[in-house]
Amino acid sequence: TKGKVKMIVNFTYSYLSAQLELNVWMPRLPLQIELSDTELGQIKSWRVPILTSKRSDWNSDEAERKGKGCMLQLQHALVRVLTYFVAEQEDPRDPTAYFLGSDWQVDVTRLVRYFMKVEDPRVARLQEGRVLSGRDFGTTTIQVFSPLSDVILAKTTVKVVDDKVSITELGVQL
Predict the structure, then answer these.
(1) Going by C-beta distance under 8 Å and a sequence separation of 6 or more, which residues neighbour residue 63?
(2) May I ask which residue range the UniProt record assigns to the signal sequence (predicted)?
(3) CATH code at 132?
(4) Is the pTM of this model over 0.85?
(5) Is 111 helix (H, G, I), strand (E, B) or coil?
(6) Cα three-residue angle 131-134-138, rounded to 5 degrees
(7) Of 5, 27, 57, 164, which alpha carbon lies 20 to 30 A from 148's?
(8) Is residue 15 part of a domain?
């Protein structure tokens, strides 16, 4: 199935019928996974408690007593999935048509977030399809799977390294 410029689409409702000429846009594969940082390190002087239970009840005195100390916080990266939307021209010799132009990609992260997976969840974890957090040292991949099959629509590699980084700037975006 491909996108097409000036495609005739038939609409039928009860005894009414009409034809409409539309441009049908399809995402170009593979999709692009963009990470704010592909190498995640330890944040110097930022420690988080190590809890023995799976629950993270930060306000509980009992959880604090059960804690096994603190460990360094690992970096996080923002995740975006982008693609071009394309359609074939009527004349196959004409160049492919791009939705919004060939220099514009569409952010489809919200549409594919339930189909994203980290290959090795011991190394990194994906939170709500938007934030990748390091968990342990190593290399893993983030993949976007087709909702219809096991086909991988996008893939990128991320490393969690032993290097320590310092916070030089901290900002809030509203």
Answers:
(1) 51, 53, 55, 56, 57
(2) none
(3) 2.60.40
(4) no
(5) helix
(6) 135
(7) 5
(8) no
Q: Which residue type does 73 have?
A: Q
- Asked if the structure places residue 6 within a domain, the reply is no
Cis status of the peptide bond prior to 147, with omega within 30 of 0: no
What per-residue confidence (pLDDT) applies to 7? 87
Is 141 within 8 Å of 135 (Cβ atoms)? no
Helix H or strand E encompassing 65? helix 61-66
Q: State how far the Cα of 96 lies from the Cα of 45, in Å rounded to an integer.
A: 52
**Distance separating alpha carbons of residues 118 and 142, to the nearest angstrom:** 5
DSSP string spanning 13-53?
Answer: ETTEEEEEEEEE-EEPSSPEEEES-SEEEEEEEEEEE--SS
Give the mean pLDDT of the chain: 88
pLDDT digits (tens, 9 = 90+) for 41-58: 998 888 888 776 555 555
* 59 located within any domain: yes
